[in-house]
């Protein structure tokens, strides 16, 4: 009797899991034999990857603009001043430090602007 109960519990668990997935949305598909089967839809992210990529590109462009406008010494002076502050400011200094991509973009920006 224990084997039957375990098999029943597994089936109930599987059906409950499928029901929870279907409550978020489903779509109907037809199999090759003509049977219509409901499949749960995948949950999409609230923020698309394109938006995240665009924000990252904008951030590097902003850093490159600051680096080109202030110059490397002035930029590094401000980052060092940020690094002496609170832990949040230190995290900001770590993010804003000069990296190769920002430096390359800054040199290209200097060629265009100046």
TrEMBL record:
Which taxonomic lineage does the organism of this UniProt entry have?
Bacteria, Pseudomonadati, Pseudomonadota, Alphaproteobacteria, Rhodobacterales
Species in which this protein is naturally found: Ruegeria arenilitoris
Name of protein? Uncharacterized protein
């Amino acid at each position: 009797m224990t084997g039957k109960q375990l098999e029943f519990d597994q089936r109930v668990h599987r059906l409950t899991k499928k029901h929870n997935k279907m409550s978020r949305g489903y779509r109907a598909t037809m199999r090759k034999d003509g049977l219509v089967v409901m499949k749960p839809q995948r949950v999409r992210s609230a923020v698309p990857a394109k938006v995240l990529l665009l924000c990252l590109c904008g951030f590097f462009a902003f850093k490159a603009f600051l680096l080109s406008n202030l110059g490397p010494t002035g930029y590094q002076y401000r980052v060092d001043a940020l690094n002496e502050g609170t832990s949040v400011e230190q995290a900001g200094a770590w993010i804003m430090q000069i990296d190769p991509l920002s430096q390359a973009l800054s040199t290209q920006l200097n060629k265009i602007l100046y």
